[in-house]
Amino acid sequence: MINSKSFTKVGVVGFGGYIPAGRASVAEIAQKQGKSPEQVTASLGVKQKAVADRDEDTVSLSVEAARLALLQSKIKPEQIGAIIVGSESHPYAVKPTGSIVGEILGVGNDYLTVDLEFACKAGTSAIILIAGLIEAGLIDCGLAIGADVAQAKPGDALEFTAGAGAGAYILGNKKFRWLARLNQVGSFTSDTPDFWRRQGEKYPSHAGRFTAGPAYFRHVVGATEKFLRQTKTKISDYQHVVFHMPNSKFPTRAAKILGASESQLKTGFLVPQIGNPYSASSLLGLAAVLEKAKKQQKILVTSYGSGAGSDNLSLTKL
């Protein structure tokens, strides 16, 4: 059980998002697959997806997002005490992404790093772990990243939305100027075989509509309901709500089930234009919200990762 304690020493010091310039039209992909472009686009509610260039990978995306976060935070790279990168497309099966990112950023050698993998929720899990290290006093600030160059088998349904991008967050204690305060976190996990890729396989497998929808709603809705109960809050207490966005239909339906309005979802709703960059999806949505939210507005994030689980983050813009 995760205690619903409130953080007292953790805030967002800087954040950055990076989305590759390349785009692939969902209509064009549908045409190539011999399907109706209009029907597929309407069904998914996605017009296009971001596509990484041939010289871009999870490391380069992470570095670009992290550099923006560093620039905004105005802290020195060597002040970072931990780097955690969440992704399901780490370039190496055996070699950490975090150490490469740290070397490029000039963090030095005095820091902790580890890579995470939990489908599309590894980025929010990185935030939770960094926050725990800060709250415990082990580090003063740390870098959490969610980044992916998503894979999809040619001709598979995932090909329509599997995109690329990165979201990076520098969290710090009260020694630093906060842009937002981290209030509380939560998590909801089960062993649900929704989406998987065995070692050595190039593309992931999934059970399609038999698990994708039920697994998403069980975890996103279940995690959010549990979090609201534990924190004694209502969905209406949050001016902005970000759910993981595999397409437009799922988060919109989850919002309706939970009683969240379209206006609460709107600011961070990026999926129609960038697709699903997996571990970066929720973090890029949160970045969009933090850019536009007004002071003292509350933000709720619920990620989702196949396998399956959801994380919750509650923040207040400062």
UniProtKB/TrEMBL annotation:
Which controlled-vocabulary keywords does the entry list?
Acyltransferase, Transferase
* Residue intervals of the Hydroxymethylglutaryl-coenzyme A synthase N-terminal domain: 9-173
Q: Which residues constitute the signal peptide according to the record?
A: none
Q: Does the keyword Transferase belong to this entry?
A: yes
**Any single GO BP term:** secondary metabolite biosynthetic process
Query: Pfam families annotated for this entry?
Result: ACP_syn_III_C, HMG_CoA_synt_N
Indicate the segments forming the Beta-ketoacyl-[acyl-carrier-protein] synthase III C-terminal domain, all copies: 228-308
Q: Which GO terms describe its molecular function?
A: hydroxymethylglutaryl-CoA synthase activity
Q: Which SUPFAM superfamilies match?
A: Thiolase-like (SSF53901)
PANTHER family membership: 3-OXOACYL-[ACYL-CARRIER-PROTEIN] SYNTHASE 3, ACYL-COA:ACYL-COA ALKYLTRANSFERASE
Name this protein carries in UniProt: Hydroxymethylglutaryl-CoA synthase
**Organism (species):** Candidatus Beckwithbacteria bacterium CG1_02_47_37
